[in-house]
Specification:
Helix content: 40-55%
Radius of gyration: 18 Å
Number of helices: 9
Distance between the termini: 21 Å
Strand content: 5-15%
Number of strands: 4
Largest sheet: 4 strands, antiparallel
Length: 196
Amino acid sequence: MSLVLDPAAQDLLFREARTANTFTDEPVTDEQVQAIYDLVKYGPTAFNQSPLRITLVRSPEARERLVKHLAEGNRAKTAAAPLVAVLSADNEFHEELPHLFPHFPQAKDAFFAERPVRENAAAFNAALQAAYFIVGVRAAGLAAGPMTGFDAEGLRKEFLDDDHTPLMVVNIGRPGPDAWHPRSPRLAYEQVVTTV
């Protein structure tokens, strides 16, 4: 069975997509970010909990505050990217459940009253949403450079609060010169799929 999605879209989102390491100086607009969000907000999460939160870093001052918390190898590319998104998990996502899960508003207290349970759920589901976000950036014709090399506690104190857990930093823009590393290998179908 073949895929329904157009082959060009398959290439854009997956086969030809790479993690970008350089970017042009073309700005990423608020309208582009809004369009990305308006697409990826429909990706599924458990109980529709939608715990991902996005902090956009645009100003030179904020960029300087961000870069100091990144691993050395990530600093130059983040300093040069037109836009950077700090993706975090909201550990108090349950406060939105009466609105987001209206057919069972009691889920807020029935399942997520305890903070450790919320933190686990938020981390897992926000990671799903982070993947949707990266695909959404690609769908907008932009390149994404997701990174997890950072001081999480420093990043939390600088940009977030104790109710948010940083997941990744994503550089966003049009790919620049020598933006890509060669494609790394992938596992074969037989290495991943087992039929029982």
